[in-house]
Design a protein that fits this description.
With about 200 residues, the chain is mainly α. The chain is built from 11 helices and no strands. The chain has a domain of about 100 residues: Alpha Horseshoe (Serine Threonine Protein Phosphatase 5, Tetratricopeptide repeat), CATH 1.25.40.10. The radius of gyration is 21 Å and the shape is elongated.
C-alpha cells in the first residue's frame, strides 16, 4: 500500500475513533441523566480511554465527579474535578449544576486553586503550553491575590523563555499590580532573562 493510501486510511481510522468516543460520551451522559450511575461511570471512563478532545474529556470527568459526590465519595469527587480542570481550565458548572447542595460547593472551593496547582506542576514538568493554559484558566476562575500574582509570575517566565519579552513584562506588571511586595526566589532571580526584567520593573514602581 502506498504512502498516500496509508495516510488516508490513518485519517479515516482516526475519524472513526473520534466519532466512537463522541457516541460513547453521549451514551454515558444519557445514562447519567437516567440515574444509571454505575453504567454511566463505566461508559464515561470508556469514552475517556477511547480519546476525546479537551472540553469533552473535561465534561466526562465532571460527570464522574457528580457520580462520586452523589455516592458520598468526596475525595474521588474532588479528584475527578481536578482532572476536569486540568483538561480544560475554563470548565464551569451550569446554573442547575452549580446549585447542587453537594458538588456545587466542592467545585467552587477548588476550581481556581486546582487549575493553579495543575498549571504549576505542568510548568515544573516543562509542559509550558499546557501550563500557560491552566495558569490563565486559574486566573479567569478567580484566585486570592498572592496566588494570582504567582500565576502571572509563572506566565511571565513562560513568555520570557519563548523570547516574548513584551508579554513577559506585561505578566510581571500584572503580578506586581496584584502583589506589590512580590519577590523572586533566589533561583528565579538569578535567571539571565527574566531576572533583570523583573528587577527593572520592580525598581520602577
Amino acid at each position: 500500500m502506498g504512502r498516500l493510501a496509508l495516510l488516508a486510511l490513518a485519517a479515516v481510522l482516526s475519524g472513526c475513533a473520534a466519532l466512537q468516543a463522541q457516541v460513547t460520551l453521549v451514551e454515558g451522559l444519557r445514562q447519567f441523566d437516567a440515574g444509571e450511575h454505575d453504567k454511566s461511570s463505566a461508559t464515561l471512563q470508556n469514552a475517556i480511554g477511547t480519546g476525546l478532545g479537551d472540553k469533552d474529556r473535561a465534561n466526562a470527568y465532571k460527570h464522574l465527579a457528580f457520580i462520586h459526590c452523589s455516592a458520598g465519595r468526596e475525595r474521588a469527587c474532588r479528584d475527578e474535578f481536578r482532572k476536569a480542570l486540568a483538561a480544560d481550565p475554563a470548565t464551569q458548572l451550569d446554573a442547575a449544576e452549580a446549585g447542587h447542595p453537594v458538588w456545587g460547593p466542592i467545585f467552587r472551593s477548588m476550581s481556581g486553586a486546582s487549575a493553579l496547582s495543575a498549571g504549576l506542576k505542568l510548568y515544573e514538568d516543562g509542559e509550558y503550553a499546557e501550563s500557560a493554559k491552566n495558569l490563565q484558566g486559574a486566573i479567569d476562575l478567580g484566585l486570592p491575590d498572592k496566588q494570582r500574582a504567582d500565576a502571572h509570575k509563572h506566565l511571565a517566565f513562560i513568555h520570557c523563555s519563548s523570547n516574548r519579552e513584551r508579554a513577559c513584562r506585561d505578566e510581571f506588571r500584572k503580578a506586581l499590580a496584584v502583589n506589590p511586595a512580590l519577590e523572586l526566589a533566589p533561583a528565579e532571580a538569578g535567571h539571565p532573562v527574566w531576572g533583570p526584567i523583573f528587577r527593572s520593573l520592580k525598581a520602577g514602581r
